[in-house]
Amino acid sequence: MSNSFGFTDLMNKDEHKRKKTNTKNIPIEEIKENENNNYDLVDIDKLADSIDELGLLQPVLVKQRDKYSYELIAGHRRFNAIKKLISENRLPEDYEVLAKKVDEEEDELVTRLKLHETNLQTRSLLKMPEEEKIAIIDDYMDILDKAKKQGVQINGKPVKGKTRDLIAERFGISHYTAQKLIRKAKEQGGEEEGAKISPQKKTAKKPITQLKKIETQLEKLEFEGTEEEQEIKKKLIELLMK
Length: 242
Description:
Layout: H1 9-17, E1 23-27, E2 31-32, H2 44-54, E3 60-66, E4 69-74, H3 76-87, E5 96-101, H4 108-120, H5 130-150, E6 153-154, E7 157-158, H6 163-171, H7 175-188, H8 199-220, H9 227-241
GO cellular component, one term: chromosome
Protein name: Partition protein B
Organism: Lactococcus lactis subsp. lactis bv. diacetylactis
């Protein structure tokens, strides 16, 4: 099924419109990470080494929130790799990040979609960990639902169609797989079929998702191997799972 609008055109059209004057160096302390980012920060060490050797080849994408405050829309791995290099004194503390700015007047739902689009260009949903998958589907469902209700247009056209069909098309998965992921996302949020998630429940889910991401990162940590360090790691993971 082909819809009247295309998600992937978001970045291409935006790139065509964006002028060179919208690309600038921004002090790293003025950029804040996007709390809506549900994508795992993988291979940061390897990326940091690449940036150390070759420099930042692709600018991050930001949206200005205040005079000296920008929210990160795309490039979370690059941003964290740069922070790692600074912490290791491989880059100066006053390092300025090459960034492209999106239109400050851009609808927030379109901005949230761009966060997904930039990540999905290089990563396959089905290859992601289950928790990451569910969090992404849940956020996508929320964006689609609000876009329909608010009449938000994507590339000049309204968002239409069943959520299952839209998700299946965007992520390149079957309708069966899309429905299964939707059901899991609803179950995780405590939503019955056809019911609405209250704002309180929606807000409460974010810390849970963040804790699970921290747990995943802890499991990847490499310790020296002493019994004491392994015990600390074990207790930290047990604490997060409570």
